[in-house]
Amino acid sequence: MNTLTFTLGVIASSEGHHRQRLMDTYGEAKALAAGIELESGSARPRIVACLERFRACKAAEDVTAAAWVLVAIQERIAERDLTGWQTLKIVADKAASLLRPSRKQMH
After folding, report:
1. C-alpha–C-alpha distance, residues 67 and 99, integer Å
2. Among residues 14, 76, 80, which one has the least CA distance to residue 51?
3. Which residues pair with 42 in a beta bridge?
4. What backbone torsions phi and psi does residue 42 show, to the nearest 5 degrees?
5. Cα 56-20-4 angle, rounded to 5 deg
């Protein structure tokens, strides 16, 4: 929960160019994860791929690390076997909603 809360804070406090980079990276991370097959019903390969990108971005002190870790967390939550996964999903969905284009931007 601490990592998720921290990630939400990074995303919520981002503005302008940083927010746009996070939005773009979030889309890239979601596409990467969706393109990786589950392994015997487990999202582990998706999670590992996102965490590898997260670590590289974090090492470079790149704000987009938050988008990579968010997708890794979402994939883990989607397995629905964590204690309190429903609460975690609410927080993760809130963070993700900040990285989706608003309706105004879509027009």
Report:
1. 8
2. 76
3. 39
4. -100, 140
5. 55
Size of the chain, expressed as the number of residues it contains: 107
Q: Which of 25, 70, 26, 36 is nearest to 51 (CA)?
A: 70
pLDDT digits (tens, 9 = 90+) for 30-88: 999 999 999 999 999 999 999 999 999 999 999 999 999 999 999 999 999 999 999 99
Q: Rounded to two decimals, what is the model's pTM?
A: 0.93
Residues 24, 30: Cα–Cα separation, whole Å? 10
CA 71 to chain centre: 3
- Render pLDDT for 77-106 as a digit per residue (tens, 0 to 9): 999 999 999 999 999 999 999 998 876 655
Helix, strand and coil in the chain, % to nearest 5: 75, 0, 25
- Chain centroid to Cα 105, Å, comes to 21
What angle, rounded to 10 degrees, do the helices at 16-34 and 65-78 form?
40
Distance CA 3, CA 38 (A): 24
